[in-house]
Write a structure and sequence with these properties.
The protein is an alpha/beta fold and about 325 residues long. Among the domains are: about 50 residues, 434 Repressor (Amino-terminal Domain), CATH 1.10.260.40; about 130 residues, Response regulator (Rossmann fold, 3-Layer(aba) Sandwich). Helix content is about 45%, strand content about 15%. The protein contains 13 helices and twelve strands. Strand 1, helix 5 and strand 2 form a beta-alpha-beta unit. The longest helix has 17 residues. The protein starts with 8 loop residues before the first helix and ends in a 7-residue tail after the last strand. About 45% of the residues are buried.
């Protein structure tokens, strides 16, 4: 008996040369699509003889076997191991993973979440700060959504993350224990919870030492970006009263600080101590190697998948909140 392969929405997307989200918008009639792309999708549907009712029926049965993962920027090395952990766990349970990059655009994030409403995917994990909490509250009542790393307390969703406040506090305390007294913070965008929490931890560590925070030493850049961090670090180190140490909220940012310090003729760690965050490969590739806070990134992704599968299997299961442990790893950028 001849086996007939079921045509999937991914097959249609591949044939049309567009994303699954675009195919979903065309089939549902919701959302903007250029006439040229719309025609390509229609042609692919006809060519492959795709049953446009197929996606909704599969979603109602809960067996599309696709999980959605939304990340802000794939270029950020922090996300690589989280994606790896999520994908490996998903594959073990018979699921494919649709990875979408939001570029920190609220419109894109909402558009991807609509893949749940259109029953293209069975559930979603988001690493993105969620815009419009009221919209996601409504979607979360009917569809499985799990937050990873970034989470909102007001949303009754399962999440897995770390305690960024305490991790940052310990990192700055460590710098103080080595004799650094003028510790600066080079932070990311405050739309991210981790950035707000790490700033809180930084402030608490200063309070522990009876030190008042110097606003000039608390610098924010829009995103984790090496070029942006280089410019911010150069400005920071040129201040009339420059810091003698920098706590950077990412290894990418910490590497930029070290580059800027060398350009300014400063020795790391003798003249400037540097601590990063995430324990990515960059922390080992840098010269000197970077003292950093290790996040269990693979485990964050794997647990996020576990929580999502729990919600898919039992939609009435209560949400679970997991905070995983971190570890400060001392390397050359602080060892005087």
């Amino acid at each position: 008996m001849k086996c007939v392969k079921t045509v999937t929405i991914q097959d249609v997307a591949n044939s049309a040369g567009v994303s699954i989200a675009t195919v979903s918008r065309v089939l549902s009639g919701k959302g903007p699509v250029s006439p040229e792309k719309r025609q390509r999708v229609i042609d692919a549907v006809e060519k492959l003889d795709y049953n446009t009712d197929q996606g909704s029926r599969a979603g109602q049965k809960g067996n599309t076997s696709i999980l959605l993962m939304i990340v802000p920027r794939i270029s950020n090395p922090f996300y690589s191991e989280i994606i790896h952990g999520f994908q490996n766990n998903a594959y073990k349970h018979g699921y494919e993973v649709l990875l979408c990059q939001s570029m920190s655009s609220p419109r894109r994030t909402e558009e991807y979440i609509n893949l749940l409403r259109n029953r293209v995917v069975d559930g979603a994990v988001t690493l993105e700060p969620l815009p419009s909490p009221e919209i996601f509250t409504a979607v979360g009542r009917s569809y499985p959504i799990v937050q990873c790393c970034e989470y909102l307390d007001e949303l009754d969703f399962s999440y897995v993350a770390i305690d960024n406040v305490q991790a940052a506090r310990k990192a700055v305390q460590y710098l103080h224990s080595l004799g650094y007294r003028k510790v600066a913070l080079l932070n990311s965008g405050m739309n991210f919870r981790y950035a707000r929490d790490r700033q809180t931890g930084y402030r608490l560590a200063l309070t522990d030492q009876g030190i008042a925070a110097n606003p000039e030493w608390m610098v924010n850049i829009a995103d984790v970006n090496y070029s942006l961090a280089l410019g911010a670090a150069e400005t920071l180190l040129k201040l009339p009263n420059p810091p003698d140490a920098v706590f950077a909220v990412s290894d990418v940012i910490a590497a930029a600080v070290i580059k800027s310090a060398k350009k300014a003729g400063l020795r790391v760690p003798q003249d400037l101590g540097v601590v990063g965050f995430d324990n990515t490969e960059i922390s080992l590739m840098s010269d000197p190697s970077i003292t950093t806070v290790n996040q269990p990134r693979y485990e964050l992704g794997a647990y996020a998948c576990d929580l999502l599968l729990e919600q898919i299997r039992d939609p009435k299961a209560p949400p679970r909140h997991l905070l995983l442990n971190t570890e400060l790893i001392a390397r050359e950028s602080t060892q005087r």
